[in-house]
Design goal:
This protein is 44% helix and 17% strand. It has 326 residues and is an alpha/beta fold. It has one domain: TIM Barrel, CATH 3.20.20.30. The strands form 2 sheets. Strands 1, 2, 3, 4, 5, 8, 9, 10, 11 and 12 form a 10-stranded parallel beta sheet that branches. Strands 6-7 form a two-stranded antiparallel sheet. The longest helix is centred in the middle third of the chain and has 20 residues. It is globular. The two termini are 15 Å apart.
Amino acid sequence: MVAISIMIEGQMGLTWPRWQQLVAEVDALGFAGLFRSDHYTNARPPDSDSLEAIVALTYLAAHSRQIHFGPLVAPLSVREPTMLARQAAAIDDLSGGRLILGLGAGWQEREHTLFGHDLGDIPTRMARFEEGLAVISRLLGSATPVTYEGQFYQLRGATLLPRPARPGGPPILIGGNGPRRTLPLVARYAQIWNAVGLAPDAFRARSSLLDGELVKAGRAPDAVRRTLMTTLIFGADPAALARTLAGLVPLAPATAGQAPAAQQAFWREERQAVVGTPDAVVEQIAAYAAAGVEELMLQWFDLDDIAGLQALAATVLPRVRAGTGG
């Protein structure tokens, strides 16, 4: 059975009242998890409210009981890895072992410029990312002092105390699809691989490449859990779906003025989104499960659409758990 989680974009208007309601609802409705992006702001104006991710996840750890959770993903171009390891261990302990530590290299140029962070070119980002992964992995996994001499980070007999209650600390998730840079890092450092916006056939092909990288790294293919984040556009009925699609026109200007069927086709074909009423959504989820996806993090854009989340939980989750198709 594929697990179903909700993912939100924290830089698109997230406030404390919205976050508190989302945490309560997602935890109560039976979803597997709740994930959020870690950005200061959007890649393009306009800017919106953006609740800081580590503080928000600390709240979630203390105010939920069932769901796992984490950043998708924390960029090491902004997050200093020794402090992030320390924060992650503490949040995981607070939650009773439910944090998933999603990590990435960083990509969004605008926020780095606005807030004075050095993003660097792609080789720099990936080199820094690999060093950060090594630092975080060693601090979380070693009870003895850690020494590390890198270009970006140095440890000289560092021990993370208190030790994480979960042996090795929270699992590391690496997000991304790149076969040359990202998948080899997943094979070396991650317990979870999170693909982004791939169709089922493309996911299956990348997952096979990851199998090969894991063997090269001396790990079994089943050592890494396979997950995927993609957009969800859902309506409990055709009228609700049409309203949701109309509300997303600012994110997809090419759909302006189109009929709902054409808008659905755009999101499916151009953005690899899961789109539709319950039957169609269940059918698309089943295709991902058949491709080997173990958990879907479904990107939910409307932070105020609690009724939509409730309808999704009522009409889709039971059928996914039962393994029934469209």
